[in-house]
From TrEMBL:
Domain of life: Bacteria
Listed Gene3D superfamilies: Ribonuclease Z/Hydroxyacylglutathione hydrolase-like
CDD domains named in the record: ComA-like_MBL-fold
Pfam families named among the record's database cross-references: Lactamase_B
Metallo-beta-lactamase domain mapped to chain residues: 42-235
SMART domains from the UniProt entry: Lactamase_B
Entry-linked InterPro entries: ComA-like_MBL, Competence_DNA_uptake, Metallo-B-lactamas, RibonucZ/Hydroxyglut_hydro
Protein purpose: Counteracts the endogenous Pycsar antiviral defense system. Phosphodiesterase that enables metal-dependent hydrolysis of host cyclic nucleotide Pycsar defense signals such as cCMP and cUMP.
Protein name: ComEC/Rec2 family competence protein
Record-linked PANTHER family: BETA-LACTAMASE DOMAIN PROTEIN, DNA INTERNALIZATION/COMPETENCE PROTEIN COMEC/REC2
Reactions it catalyzes: 3',5'-cyclic UMP + H2O = UMP + H(+); 3',5'-cyclic CMP + H2O = CMP + H(+)
Length: 281
């Protein structure tokens, strides 16, 4: 599907000798691919590690179920080693049930928060049908996705009334490069991540809550210090996402912004040292 669309390289730069948390040095030519899938107004990130391990974070809204299955085909995904449902909102977990129905899944993480929506119940049913047990997503969890790709969960740091703040926030490190994937975490969660003392720095930031004013506070942004930011938004969405205040903040910090509504799916490839960004349009 994507192959038919002309692709062009928009960025490629060396990040130099930044401190990295990789367990072993990346092998030359081995690549981590992070796909910020265009699911309209919603969010979904697919990661494929050098050894072919896969992680899917969110899967867009209910009406994107087929789109998600098509993406799995496009990227030759035959199993998912890790699935993360950041929080129960439909624009994140809507398409997850069908993905779980169609592919073998080894582990699934979700925050400890319930929802009485049909979408959430349908996801729980798919998880149950697969005989999976949900692992609780929370700050402090960490695991290796493969020998060289490390995953740290930086949020939620507590229990919040606002389910957006219950969002699982995932930091992925490969060699000297890192990605911070924030779900819909808002300022309250950002404040607690800052207070937790966790290393928030990342080369790529998935802008929280689709570029809403609720997220990407200046303090948080200054700590993350991303080179690149991705905003997962749908064209002409009714929320007015992304907000101009957030775009201005990113611009002032010198962050290069990529958007699904303008550029389609955004693929960021890391060789452990530098990043290479390709957009669908
Ligand atoms: Zn959302």
């Amino acid at each position: 599907m994507l192959a038919a669309i002309s692709m062009f390289i928009v960025a490629g730069c060396s990040l130099g000798d930044l401190p990295g948390a990789g367990t072993t040095d990346p092998v030359d030519g081995q690549k981590l691919n992070v796909y910020f899938l265009d699911v309209g107004q919603g969010a979904s990130q697919l990661l494929v590690t050098p050894s072919g391990k896969t992680m899917l974070i969110d899967a867009g809204n209910n009406d994107k179920e087929q789109v998600m299955l098509d993406y799995m085909k496009t990227y030759h995904i035959e199993k998912l080693d890790v699935v993360v449902g950041t929080h129960p909102d439909a624009d994140h977990i809507g398409g997850l049930d069908k993905v779980i129905d169609h592919l073998p899944v080894s582990a699934i993480y979700m925050p400890k928060v319930q929802s009485n929506t049909k979408t959430f119940e349908s996801l729980l049913q798919s998880i149950k049908n697969k005989g999976l047990k949900v692992k609780t997503a929370r700050a402090g969890l960490s695991f290796d996705l493969d020998d060289q790709v490390h995953v740290d969960m930086l949020a939620p740091n507590g229990t919040y009334e606002n389910t957006n703040n219950m969002s699982a926030v995932v930091k992925v490190t490969y060699g000297h490069t890192s990605f911070l994937l924030t779900g819909d975490a808002e300022s309250e969660s950002e404040k607690d991540m800052l207070a937790s003392g966790a290393d928030l720095h990342a080369d790529v930031l998935l802008v929280g809550h689709h570029g809403s004013n609720s997220s990407t506070t200046l303090k948080f942004l200054k700590q993350v210090q991303p080179k690149y930011a991705v905003i997962q938004v749908g064209k002409g969405n009714t929320y007015g996402h992304p907000k101009s205040a957030v775009l201005n903040r990113l611009q002032k910090q010198g962050v290069e912004v990529y958007r699904n509504d303008l550029q389609g799916t955004i693929t960021i490839t890391s060789d452990g040292k530098s990043l290479h960004i390709v957009t669908e349009r």
